[in-house]
Amino acid sequence: MTVYRNVVILTGAGISAESGLDTFRDKGGIWEKYDLMELATPEAFAQNPDLVHEFYNLRRAGVKKVDPNAAHYALARLEEKYSGEITVVTQNVDGLHERAGSKNMLHMHGELNKVRCGACGAVRFWSDDLSRASVCPCCGQAKHLRPHIVWFGEVPFHMDEIDGLLQQCDLFISIGTSGSVYPAAGFVQIATEYGAETVELNLVPSDGKNLFATGCYGRATEVVPDYIAELVRQDEM
Ligand code: APR
What we know:
Blueprint: E1 6-11, H1 30-33, H2 36-39, H3 42-47, H4 49-64, H5 70-81, E2 85-90, H6 96-100, E3 105-107, E4 110-117, E5 123-125, E6 145-149, H7 159-168, E7 171-175, H8 187-193, E8 197-202, E9 214-217, H9 220-236
Helix pairs in contact: 5-9, 7-8
The protein binds adenosine-5-diphosphoribose (APR).
């Protein structure tokens, strides 16, 4: 029977796939449909802000039409029932973890339902379309609001805090991520270096599969609830 004191769970687009949201690198994924260099870099936003706003407006509207799935709810249940500390570090920007009830969250790539003002730095919830004409609710200036999303070439959020969590955790779980984008793809190595157990829960073995001690493969809505149920069962023994 193993009970863990500090569990860090990294999630990627795969955990939201069965809610109906496209992943990035699977067949038919977002980066197969769109050119990330035109839509997900600071240079792209400077060059063509209207196109970038349109891309995120589409995604922000799309998230409103889907719901969390059994994998999201399983993580929220773990946080509620487990005796150890649970932290979800997500690469996802869709807000489905919070809607399923997860509270102890770090969004390392930002959030679709937030905007950031380039003039005053304010970050605010924003659920409607964004454009160059949108006015910052804090400083009242237009033309300076951008999606609160980390673009390629920008530094992910909360990295110092995440590093500390990885050094303290005794269980690191990676769910629904291809392990192809750093720094997230390197988290398993930090956790391993500091003695954590590591497990990958994914549809198929990811690029980083050999870095994990164990892996369970299949759809997140099946594999994640089963794995979490066993963690909770052992905790209650
Ligand atoms: N259940 C479990 N895993 C799934 C499912 C599913 N139903 N469907 C897909 N997957 C897995 C895929 O096998 C793949 O390994 O989810 C992973 C999705 O990988 P990516 O599309 O690369 O998404 P992600 O790893 O989150 O990308 C990381 O890259 O473009 C940036 O900012 C973007 O946060 C994103 C980052």
